[in-house]
Amino acid sequence: MRIIGGTMKGKKLATFSGRHIRPTPDRVREAIFSILFSRAGTLSGNSVLDLFSGTGAMALEALSRGAGRAVLIDQGAEAARLITENLRACEFLERAEFRSQDVLSALPRLPAERPFDLIFLDPPYRKGLVPTVLEAIAVRGLLAPGGWIVAEEARGEDVAPLPGGLVLCESRNYGATAVHLLTHNEQKAQG
Question: What is the sign, positive or negative, of the torsion defined by CA atoms of 94, 95, 101, 106?
Answer without folding.
Answer: positive
